[in-house]
Amino acid sequence: MKNSLILVFTLLLIITITTTCIVNSFSVSAFIAPVIMVLAAVKFLLVAFQFMELKKAHSFWKISLIITLGLLVILIIGIK
Questions:
Q1: How far apart are alpha carbons 67 and 74 in whole angstroms?
Q2: Torsion 30-33-36-38 (CA) sign
Q3: Can you tell me the distance from the alpha carbon of 43 to that of 10, in angstroms, rounded to the nearest whole number?
Q4: Where are the domains of the chain?
Q5: Helix axis angle, 32-46 relative to 59-79, nearest 10°?
């Protein structure tokens, strides 16, 4: 249990640092926003499943969260 928490925390730090490097190294483009949104969605799912104990919830809640997040990301990327 403790190893999985450390692993997820490390992944969150790596994704955050990667996002920061992407933002600082590239100029504004249409390619950067979707990449950042996908990384943010991955971070959200990691936090939801690991730290909010959603992995123990009913499968309906898991699927509904993933579908809602996917639709939200697609909607935001589509508007941009």
A1: 10
A2: negative
A3: 11
A4: 2-79
A5: 160
Mean pLDDT of the chain: 90
Q: What is the pLDDT of residues 36-74, one digit of tens each?
A: 999 999 999 999 999 888 989 999 999 999 999 999 999
Contact 49, 65 (CB under 8 A): no
Look up residue 48 and give its amino acid.
Answer: A
The phi, psi pair for 31, rounded to 5°, reads -85, -30
Which residues are within 8 A (CB) of 48 and not within 5 positions of it... i.e. 6 or more apart?
54, 65
Look up the pTM and report it.
Answer: 0.84
Residue owning tokens 């919830």 = 57
How is residue 5 written in tokens? Answer: 């928490």
